[in-house]
Design brief:
Helix content is 56%, strand content 10%. By secondary structure, it is of the alpha/beta class. Helix 5 (94-107) runs antiparallel to helix 6, helix 6 (125-158) packs across helix 7 and helix 9 (202-211) packs across helix 10.
Length: 246
């Protein structure tokens, strides 16, 4: 089952599971520090002991992950809890998240603790509903961002923009980086436009994006200045929308 603050956890053994999506983040630690900090804070609050850490460098949409498999095997053997900083770090597949929760309940392991959902108990009908909704949001957003990015790249290619491949020279590389940034911004248009029309601040937009897994390279919410640049690429500038930066 998933633990809740009302259930005494001391002395519960926690296995921390961290996931990043790129080798660069995995090798440098970018994104890991924020996840580790969240898990350590909750472990301290709950009186739990982190006995092992498992770091995965893999997409959240891939369910066959060696480090996750190792964490599950150790959790089953020790009846330990697996602690995850955010639900989208475990997976961006709603069905897979619920499958893991069901497995935890059946095989007697300690279950899962999500730092972003500290009160969720998946052994109850209400807990399962909330867990399903949150996992579905993460899955939906990951798919939509991917689809919009592909659509934006296809549109740029149709306009004659050279995309992909290695090119000698700083100018060419800068052009490719710019086109990638534009494509990524377009991938967020459907998410950001309603926020702009609703009058949300840049900070509120950053927090909303963080809630569905869109973070900076350091694993933190995007800065207001980054939100501003994204909106500018989309033609949704502060001057045209009257948006507040904070």
């Amino acid at each position: 089952m998933l633990s809740s603050p009302d259930c005494p956890l001391n002395p519960v053994r926690w296995l921390a599971y961290y996931r990043v999506s790129t080798d660069r983040q995995g090798n440098s630690g970018l994104g890991l520090e924020a996840q580790r900090a969240k898990v350590e804070v909750m472990a301290s609050e709950r009186g739990a002991v982190i006995t092992a850490e498992f770091v995965e460098v893999e997409s959240g949409r891939k369910n066959d992950r060696p480090q996750l498999a190792a964490a599950l095997a150790q959790a089953r053997a020790e009846k330990a809890v697996i602690a995850v900083a955010k639900i989208d770090r475990l997976a961006r597949d709603a069905g897979f998240v619920l499958k893991l929760a069901n497995e935890a309940e059946k095989n007697g392991m300690g279950g899962f603790v999500f730092c972003d959902l500290p009160d969720i108990d998946a052994t109850t009908s209400a807990g399962r509903m909330v867990l399903t909704m949150m996992a579905s949001v993460a899955e939906f957003e990951a798919r939509r961002i991917s689809e919009r990015t592909k659509e934006a790249l296809a549109a740029a290619k149709a306009r004659g923009v050279c995309l992909g491949g290695y090119r000698e020279g700083a100018a060419q590389k800068a052009s490719e980086r710019k086109q990638k940034a534009i494509a990524e911004a377009e991938g967020l248009r459907g998410v950001l436009e309603p926020m702009v029309h609703a009058g949300l601040s840049y900070r509120a937009m950053a927090d909303a994006l963080a809630g569905v897994g869109k973070l900076s390279s350091t694993g933190k919410p995007l800065a207001p200045a980054q939100i501003g640049r994204i909106l500018q690429r989309l033609g949704l500038t502060q001057s045209s929308t009257g948006q507040k930066a904070l």
